Amino acid sequence: MAFIVAIDGPAGTGKGTVTKIIAEDLGLTNIETGIMYRCVALEALRKKVEPVECEELLRILENIDIQLTKQEQIQKVWLNGEEVSKAIKMPEIDQCVAQYASLKCVRDKMTPLQRKMGENGNVILEGRDIGTVVFPDADVKIYLDCSIEERANRRYKQYLEKGVEISFEEVLEVIQKRHKSETERKIAPLRQAEDAILVDSTNLTIAEVVNEIEAIIKKKKQV
Length: 223
Fold this sequence. Notes:
This protein is an alpha/beta fold.
């Protein structure tokens, strides 16, 4: 029987990094659902399809092919046969992905794919609506939060490491707008599930967050 861990929370809380480490430590398959929405946003931008053009988006969704591979412990993302691991993490995608992810036509396509990816094994999934929509009966639900200023600071440092020229103020504005969009959207808004355990990473190191969540998972497995 599959064991499912759902980790939800806003951008910049460390979900991706934490999930990868926990997956390795506990032998779980890591599924980063946000990658799917980033791929949709990238393909839409390339084809100059705006979020309001649902008919055009449906054509993109009908033919889109998203693959995740792992080479020497490094995950690579493939969009229609092209590796886009770096392209989907650029600022222009950060700025628009929430708009595409909020659309019913997009989520109607992505949610079944996410369920299919997670229903046949021991998995850990991270995203915005994993514990509320995708897997409401997940064995473990975590809501990973963090102050918005610290989230912006972390994302700003990531951009600097990649050589992206952007100011902290610009990053903070993007994070604030994205948070507003994700929490106020009508379809699958970002929120903490009633039975999710809150973990605040604002003043914690990655190792401390990992230890706290792994302790929760191990306790649940023993029940």
